Amino acid sequence: MQRHSVREAAAGKWPGILAGMGLSDRALSGKHGPCPMCGGKDRFRFDDKEGRGTWFCSQCGAGDGVKLAMLVTGQDFPAAALEIERAAGVVQPFVRQPEQDEAAKVRKLCQAWAEGSKLTHGDEAMTYLAGRDLEIKTVPDCLRLHPALPYYETRALAGRFPAMLARVVAADGTGVTLHRTYLQRGHKAPVSSPKKLMAGKPVSGAAVRLFPVAECLGIAEGIETALAAAQLFGVPVWSCISAAGIQSFEPPAGVRELIVFGDHDSNFVGQAAAYTAAHRLKRRGLVVTVKIPSTVGDWLDQLSADAGPRDAGNCRYVLRALPVIGEGSTLRRDAPDTLRSDAKTGAGKSVDVP
């Protein structure tokens, strides 16, 4: 069967087809959850856009129903196509409830952000960060603490927890969504997925801007990992949320040198993402360096193992002291005036999404 005709036959029927291939109801629920390929706890989402069986995993990548069927069954295209064709003949089209529109998503994002407050020393979020060996002297203004954010499991309210909210910002400075870290007594909340993104705009290329825009900038996957890399190397580091975020990162105007603080994963996902991003951005003319921990883990693990400072390499704009965190709308004082002007036009500010 030809590739295009397989997709035509299966259009609108992917939930039933994939369920017959062994995918669980949870995997096909449309919510973030465990990945059926790599096993990550909250990396996978089956969104089935336009009935094409589309999906996304922050480690495995993305694709349509045909690719997902091949990955979960281990079959090549001809074998998978034959199985899909047989199932498509008996499975009824799936009718999914319409997703909330963009305006509804923005309203929820704005409400959650408005209900949060700036982090203060001793609160749940700052206690959590301090417990991870992170020294936060100046509170990031891109982070807030929500006192009791609802947590849902398969659309049912499972409880309310304090949550650290982080603004995820696109390269042009506009907000796209919020990242949530659910907390309890200074630790991650006892839930299956304590870290989640809220529904919002596409996050490809975006980041949590924990520091001002600078000519030399670092990026890492998680928020805590970015703060750890900044603490170890003395350079401003932003969080791209995931390995996929590292791969798609788009630096804003004014960035000339980039340090990619990749994860050291046993399956090489973190390393591959770091070098893919480095290759792409190097070809654009940026000076790019990749730094990977010497042992399996991320830079937060390295900080916890030994808290000594590290060498940032050949970065010409290495900060002489750890920069103020969170002033996402300004560049460092010693940056050229033209770059400061660029930053004032939208580094971390947003009109429609907080």
From TrEMBL:
Transmembrane segments: none annotated. SUPFAM superfamilies: Zinc beta-ribbon (SSF57783). InterPro entries: DNA_primase_Znf_CHC2, DUF7146, Phage_T7_Gp4_N, TOPRIM_DnaG/twinkle, TOPRIM_dom. The keyword rRNA-binding does not apply. This is DNA primase/helicase Gp4 N-terminal Bacteriophage T7-like domain-containing protein. Residues 333-343 have a biased composition (Basic and acidic residues). It comes from Candidatus Accumulibacter phosphatis. Keywords: DNA replication, DNA-directed RNA polymerase, Nucleotidyltransferase, Primosome, Transcription, Transferase. The keyword Transcription applies. Residues 333-354 are annotated as: Disordered.
